[in-house]
Amino acid sequence: MAYFCDMSLDRSKSAELFEEAKKYFPGGVNSPVRAFKSVSGPPLFIEKGNGCRITDVDQNEYIDFCCSWGPLILGHNNPVVRDFICETVAKGTSFGTPNKLGNQLAELILSKNKYIDKMRFVSSGTEAVMSAIRLARGCTGKNKIIKFEGCYHGHVDSLLVKAGSGLATFGESTSAGIPAAFAKETLVLPLNDPAALENCLAEHGHDIAAIIIEPVPANNGLLLQDKSFLECLRIKSYKYDCLLIFDEVISGFRVGFEGAAGYYDIQPDIITYGKIIGGGMPVGAYGASHEIMAHISPDGPVYQAGTLSANPVAMAAGFSALNILSAPNFYEELADKTNWLANEIEAYAIKKGYTLTVPRIGSIFWLNFSNDRITRADEIQAEGMEYFKTLHHELLERGVYLGPSGYEVGFVSAAHTMDDLKEALIHMKAALDISFKS
Ligand SMILES: *Cc1c(COP(=O)(O)O)cnc(C)c1O
Q1: Cα(25) to centroid(ligand 1), Å
Q2: Which of 88, 168, 213, 239 lies most in the core, judged by the most C-beta atoms within 10 Å?
Q3: DSSP secondary-structure letter at 122?
Q4: For 249-260, what is each residue's pLDDT tens digit?
């Protein structure tokens, strides 16, 4: 393929650093998708970010739609967030004691979120989900978990599980190092399928502690669910006396300040957060009603702890970021911009006869190389990923950065102006022309 040969951008410093990184880290990375395995070329080593743009070590600049995989809803290096982090860090980074900023961030969140009464901060989305699962098991005295194919919940043992072969819904682990006995405690169902859910609950409901779902599944394409399906989860979890967990690590503070619970107005039992909640620092959280949270140690018997949990620097970042998000019209404006971009891309695809649609919600969008609405993981066509690979490469050449996999969604941040989006659109059109021609 000729176009791989005439790379115009010099990325030699990134390539060099990647070679060096391979000596230190498995695959040269500290999180697997960063390795660019499903697209071409070495990953970019990013030196700095400002607003919607990032700059690599070779001094190439890109309009960024990855935004650190979701946390940076305000874009890079937001001055208000940065200044408050600096002011806080000057007083020390962590004390392992309670601190006022933790209260302030919790107050800001809880006073504007009618779906949870109390919360606990942790340091990542994975930790939040892991803790929520333990809490659900501790509350119900039951063991099994229902999850949905195509939802990602971090690298929690019992959730790195896919549907087993045959008719059985018992899971099979997707990673080495997970005992089969753990995977067996997880049942895996297709998304958006109320009948499969009812069948599973009728058989196993007595032993189901929780149903966990990304209410806005955004880790394997953007598989927007029917609201009626999410409502069905609520009704069935009451009926079978299990807890409903919304994993809102992506959707929380993204599709609205109250996340997907607020967007769909559905009351889950436990909600997990991550990404945006930390304003770019490592923060996760889980929250629930007073009654459910009373099970957590030291009030109750479910143990959960963290050395750096709610450290002041992380709390300062989260607090200053979430303050900005809570301003009137913040989410409306962001969704309008995202809709504009998605509509323009779709209109161009229609005009050119390209098989591409752009599902979106709030400020999340996904390039779906299909003309069908897709709600389940098994409906994603693998061949679309070949188009994506070319598209990704061509966009990098033109100074637009998308997450390096066609299964990843894109994010529009508050720092993307209409001019930035118009610029990105021109490049998107040119890159699509090449993807669909090759
Ligand atoms: C990112 C993500 C996680 C994991 O969060 P980490 O901070 O990467 O551990 C869990 N659940 C969902 C829905 C996510 O998007």
Answers
A1: 21
A2: 213
A3: E
A4: 999 999 999 999
